[in-house]
Design a protein that fits this description.
Distance between the termini: 50 Å
Strand order of the largest sheet: 22-3-26-25
Oligomer: single chain
Helix content: 40-55%
């Protein structure tokens, strides 16, 4: 009961662990949108071959996923859950047909075997306590009304284990049917090891200019019609947009500069304790605490630190490095911010050092190995002892480090190599850079106690300790109003334009095109997440040429709808980037083939202006022709020709070839082809999971009602 009490007190931790496991069930497959969008029941988010997925369950899974991964937008979570639930649905339809089920006691066994659960319910002696687990589960079920969220999380956890187990049974049944024969193993052996030598004449496609080949719209349409499965297009929208950012103006920048100038010198202000009198307020130049003053007046808090010339802003380095203690420089612009800097101290320092150390860590020190149990006081005593030994024999520092250091550099004898000023933690840094070559000492840091040996230092050079007031330049309300007015005017004038890109250019803007936006996306390239724009583009009343303005945190987006398409085959224009190169290659191949005339390879090569080459030891597994790359069709042809037989012209990947087989070397038969049978079996089994789910989804009748729920 003591263990159970501890678990109950930490139940939120367990719930988080369970939440992390909720979506471990592999999300696979592609979204298959239904043509019956909008006709479904609003309480049913999907229907997969008659199996209904309720809106409530779907939304609960979306909420749980977003809780687990807060970086996901709503639509990203929706799409992930959609892939999961449609996968589960098509698989469960198969389970019903085959009678696949998992009894409840097996589910409990899976819970008990789960690594996260076992770890959480392991007692102080390292023994898993199943009784404590059972008490916890009973408590979850009994409290399902008073704590429905915890119950839902646990139930989803169990359901996911159940689905994973059923999927394993299903895929194991399919894998059982994957039994390559010895003959197939023999084939794979020869596929990998038989080799061919052949002579070839090749004419690359690049030898014919594209201008000599004409591909028409009807050619592309004909290709699409013959390969319909390859050119199924999802519902999509095309837009162009102009982004007008809200950014600070020159006036805003000058206002910041003037404000910083007022901070340099002392000023007078009315005394709150004596309203009729004024008091002197010290400025940045004369303040008694420059760092506190900078922190008070700065948008970005930066500690004062020593900087060398090469670390200062390049445009101002020559000036800043020459300043003396107490000098104030600025205001000046750097990295889109305005700086006002003051030099607190100047010093001659080495900018780099080389050192080694022996770290003695203790329990609770930063990044300490969990196996270290020594106390801080014990660590201090050990470090003192090491320091005394090392000082007596500095030459053996590396040997001592390898044996005694708790740091990651122990294998290097504690050698840290060269490092620059400020790179190490302050205590370590100050000891090294204020020391001298050969000095050995003890320093305490958050990592533990360091026995340090300074191996080398660069020549000292001037460094300035600088503290700065840093101000961001933000757009004023006046600037934001001007930009809003400018964006509104542009959007109004864009209404009715036929060429948005040209219109935008005339107005001094750049229109960015975005193609093929899906209904359930929420990311706009160049803008990031913006579901509102996609929702607008898919509005049922939308038409090509519509324009609108969206206001975002960083600026204004003027959007122009350039294209709308429903689900179906791609148009020739849409398919052209994919199809045109294929057709160009085919047409070039026909031109080249006609040139290959003659009675032997040499004559054919001469007539076609082809290059002759020889390929040796080429296999079907690795069908590479030197200088041309992979050419499986050409190599396969060489394997089926008889020696000295010449092929007809072959259209390959990079050109057209004529080959003459010189020699086929068959690999000697072996006694046992089982290793190749097993290899073939593994290759086939690996692809089963994703291929089966994708095939089932393609075959299924899936009604998608997401658009009715997630606008």
């Amino acid at each position: 009961m003591a263990i159970l009490g501890q678990i109950q007190r930490r139940s939120s931790v367990l719930i988080m662990i369970i939440a992390l496991a909720l979506f471990a069930f592999i999300i696979q497959g592609l979204i298959k949108n239904s043509s019956s969008l909008g006709k479904g029941n609003v309480n049913v988010v999907a229907e997969v071959d008659g199996r209904k997925i309720s809106r409530k369950d779907f939304q609960q899974k979306v909420a749980l996923l977003q809780k687990r991964n807060q970086r996901l937008s709503t639509m990203q979570a929706v799409n992930s859950v959609w892939n999961q639930v449609t996968k589960v649905a098509v698989l469960n339809n198969e389970y019903d047909k085959l009678g696949i089920d998992v009894p409840q006691d097996r589910v409990h066994q899976l819970v008990v075997q789960n690594p996260s659960i076992k770890q959480y319910f392991t007692n102080d002696q390292g023994v898993f306590d199943e009784n404590a687990l059972n008490e916890y589960i009973d408590g979850i079920y009994k409290a399902q009304k008073s704590n429905p969220e915890a119950f839902a999380q646990w139930k989803n956890f169990e359901d996911d284990l159940l689905e994973a187990e059923k999927e394993k049974i299903y895929t194991d049944l399919i894998k059982a049917a994957v039994n390559p024969t010895l003959k197939e193993g023999e084939w794979l052996y020869h596929y990998e090891n038989d080799a061919v030598d052949f002579k070839y004449a090749a004419v690359p496609y690049t030898s014919i200019p594209d201008s000599l080949v004409k591909v028409t719209k009807s050619d592309i349409q004909s290709y699409i019609d013959k390969h319909k499965d390859e050119f199924e297009a999802a519902e999509a929208r095309d837009i162009e947009y102009v982004f007008i950012p809200i950014k600070a103006s020159a006036k805003d920048k000058q206002r910041v500069i003037e404000d910083l100038k007022k901070l340099i010198d002392d000023s007078e202000e009315f005394d709150a304790n004596a309203p009729d009198k004024k008091k002197i307020v010290k400025g940045f130049k004369n303040t008694d605490d420059s760092e506190a003053f900078a922190q008070l007046h700065s948008d970005i808090k930066q500690p004062a630190r020593f900087m060398f010339k090469n670390q200062l802003p390049k445009s101002y380095a020559d000036t800043l490095i020459k300043l003396n203690a107490g000098d104030v420089f600025g205001p000046y612009e750097f990295n889109n911010q305005i700086y006002l800097s003051k030099v607190l101290e100047t010093k001659m320092l080495p900018d780099s050092a080389k050192a080694a150390h022996i770290l003695v860590a203790y329990k609770g020190a930063m990044r300490a190995n969990p196996a270290i149990n020594r106390s801080k006081e014990a660590a201090r005593k050990k470090a003192d002892s090491i320091l005394k030994v090392v000082k007596k024999n500095p030459a053996k520092f590396a040997d001592y480090a390898k044996k005694l250091s708790d740091g990651p550099t122990k294998t290097k004898g504690g050698d840290l190599g060269w490092f620059t000023y400020g790179q190490m933690v302050p205590e370590f840094n100050d000891f090294v850079f204020n020391g001298s070559k050969g000095k050995i000492g003890l320093v305490e840091t958050s990592f533990g106690f360091h026995v340090i040996k300074i191996d080398d230092l660069t020549q000292p050079e001037k460094a300035v300790k600088i503290v700065s007031i840093v101000r961001n330049v933000e757009p004023s309300q006046e600037t934001e109003t001007e930009i809003f007015t400018e964006a509104s005017k542009f959007a109004g004038e864009a209404i009715g334009t036929k060429d948005f890109e040209k219109f935008a250019k005339e107005k001094g803007y750049t229109a960015k095109p975005v193609m093929k936006l899906g209904r359930f996306e929420d990311n706009i390239p160049g803008l990031g997440q913006n579901r509102e724009i996609i929702r607008w583009a898919y509005n049922k009343d939308r038409k090509i040429g519509d324009v609108t303005k969206f206001d975002t945190e960083n600026g204004h987006v003027i959007v122009y709808l350039t294209g709308m398409r429903d689900k179906g085959l791609m148009t020739p224009e849409e398919a052209s980037p994919r199809v045109k190169p294929i057709l160009i290659k085919q047409k070039k191949a026909e031109i080249i083939k006609k040139k290959f005339t003659g009675n032997n390879l040499e004559e054919m090569a001469k007539n076609a202006d082809a290059k002759i080459g020889v390929a040796t030891g080429v296999t079907l597994k690795n069908p590479i022709i030197p200088g041309y790359g992979k050419e499986p069709k050409v190599v396969a042809k060489a394997f089926v020709l008889k020696p000295d037989e010449i092929s007809n012209p072959i259209d390959g990947n990079k050109g057209v070839y004529v080959v003459k087989t010189l020699k086929i070397t068959k690999a000697p038969d072996i006694k046992n082809y089982m290793p190749y049978v097993e290899k073939l079996k593994k290759q086939q089994e690996t692809a089963i999971g994703s291929k089966v789910v994708n095939a089932l989804k393609d075959k299924a009748d899936i009604e998608d009602n997401r658009a009715m729920i997630y606008q």
